[in-house]
Write a structure and sequence with these properties.
- This protein is mainly beta and 307 residues long.
- It is 4% helix and 58% strand.
- The protein contains two helices and 17 strands.
- A twelve-stranded antiparallel barrel has the order 1-2-3-5-6-7-8-11-12-15-16-17. Strands 9-10-13-14 form a four-stranded antiparallel beta sheet, with no helix packed on it.
Length: 307
Amino acid sequence: MKVLKLSFFIFIFLVFGDSSYAQDLEPRAITNLPIGTNFLLGSYAYTSGNILLDPSLPIDGLDARLNSFVFAYVRSINFFGQSAKIDAVLPYVFGDWNGEVVGLPDRFSQDGFGDLRVRLSFNFLNSPAMSITEFSNYTADVISGFSIQVIVPTGKYNSNELVNLGSNRLAFKPQWGFAKTLNKWNIETYASIWLFTNNTNYLNGNKLGQKPLYTVKFHLIRDLPENMWISANIGYGIGGRVIVNNVERDSKISAMRFGLHYAIPINRHALKIGYVSGIRFERGSDFDALTLTYQYRWHTSAKQLTN
């Protein structure tokens, strides 16, 4: 039962309001779980630096101090005989920006909900859908999976303002992941692409478009005693040029992120402490963030092995 107990706790993921879609460094996203496992998560992050809630606006000259609260629900399901998860994430953000941009006040504040994120992820290699009993004899080795995340424009948005908490458009993120277990070490790699619809009410009726944004991520995770774990994470995003009224702007994103995370299980509860730093090479967010995530998990019975 050690494997079963450990797997419940390693599925803490970083859902803090990442302030841009470029790289949300999320270790253990590809973890296999028994069918009918549920998670409730709450996360807080304090972020400082040049950062926006909409990555289509890689504006220089902003200095932000943001407080982000994120609420999430996750459930493991059977997806045509394979292990899968569905999740929904909703951020609430408040903070201050200091601006050196023409048309912006020297200092301004925002507070409200960001855009809702909904995702389906499923593993297609070495991750069959299993009950708790079957899962107790399961040992992870090589796992591969796919996910599709949708950003729904539910966040606070005002077309008269350049900086908003919502993006007023849909975004889609298909992602492929691969994981390998080596004794107490776990290696994960991910490749994804962000696809954006147009914002037809950008700054008083203008049309904002954006080219695809490509990202890659790598996680090195070490299992520790008492089901704890620690991870080092790195991600890189490139692309995402902005198009305003069919005119392409000089706004290509090229940015890297680094992260460290430490997870602590406490019975059905778990805590994760994290640090994420963003560095830009051309455009993108340049920031530091501290995060604290709380997770509660439970299991419900289901018709677990029917398609």
